[in-house]
Design goal:
By secondary structure, this protein is of the alpha/beta class. It has eleven helices and seven strands.
Length: 293
């Protein structure tokens, strides 16, 4: 029952997409600090290398370039992990990006936002290619990355026990909030990733094949500082970013130890009975704003 045993990741191999900065790096550092060898992936090699070199702890961070929207790149990364280790215990699908936003919605005092034709026309003018881009990286990339690494995850489960291997799909509290928050595209892409999680967990569990004993869960953060939010926080403050009906109860951004600690619990032996679930760490945001939960 000691924490050192409950959260020990010695000899575990993990891969965190988008692991060079922000939330991905928080999680990668947390996993590595508890003994894991963690591949951090992304498209910018210099960013990954810098993050790996600056880590000091029990485990290690290993830079690995990979584009989660490119199948060839995914398979190349898979081959690297397979050759070096032969198995994978933890996959964190964290890579993501923001979208341009439904900018016409930002000024609720604008009379055009109160007239159906003008409001609809403003939304219709959003670029379809922006929606395609945000869905490819924030939505269905977790489907293809998980599919590619499933065999290695099964080998991890064979090595360390059924359901020890697991996938964490990083979504967002935005996937649950019914208010669009000026981001129809981003919010719906994250909601798609949440449902992909539930379908994966169900399909793996219902087949009852021992080597497929892999858990799949969602971690949905509220407001944490990252490359995506740092500039917005500096310009607009917390309330200018969260855009809720009610203010964020905690009135602060989440901390790195809170993100790392939650992911560590989900991925470690302590979270072994967690499967097909969505865990929100949002500073109470969904307690005061309309959500599906």
């Amino acid at each position: 029952m000691q924490a050192s045993a409950l959260f020990d990741l010695t000899e575990r191999v993990a891969l965190v997409t988008g692991g060079g900065t922000g939330i991905g790096l928080m999680i990668a550092q947390g996993l590595a600090a508890n003994g894991a060898k963690v591949y951090i992936t992304g498209r910018r090699e210099h960013v990954l290398t810098k993050s790996a070199l600056t880590f000091k702890g029990k485990g290690q961070l290993v830079p690995l370039t990979m584009d989660v929207t490119d199948k060839a790149s995914i398979l190349s990364a898979k081959e690297t992990v397979s050759s070096n280790d032969g198995y994978l215990d933890i996959l964190v699908n964290n890579a993501g990006q923001d979208d341009p936003g439904s900018v016409r919605m930002s000024d609720e005092s604008d009379v055009q936002n109160k007239e159906p034709e003008a409001f609809g026309s403003g939304l219709f003018n959003e670029k379809q290619e922006d929606w395609s881009s945000i869905f490819s990286i924030d939505g269905y990339s977790c489907f293809f990355v998980t599919s590619a690494f499933l065999g290695l995850l099964a080998k991890g489960a064979e090595r360390h026990g059924a359901y020890s291997a697991n996938v964490i799909n990083m979504t967002s509290v935005c996937a649950s909030i019914k208010v669009a928050m000026n981001h129809f595209g981003y919010n719906s892409a994250k909601a798609a990733a949440t449902h992909i999680t539930k379908m994966f967990a169900t399909e793996l569990a219902r087949r009852k094949i021992p080597v497929w004993c892999v858990r799949v869960n969602t971690l949905a953060p509220g407001l944490f500082e990252s490359e995506m939010t740092a500039e917005k926080l500096a310009q607009n403050g917390i309330e200018g970013v969260t855009l809720g009906v009610q203010p964020l109860p905690h009135a602060r951004v989440g901390r790195a130890n809170e993100m790392a600690g939650t992911a560590l619990w989900m991925a470690s032996p302590a979270g072994g009975y967690l499967n097909g679930q969505e865990i929100m760490i949002d500073g109470g945001y969904t307690t005061v704003n309309p959500s599906r939960s």
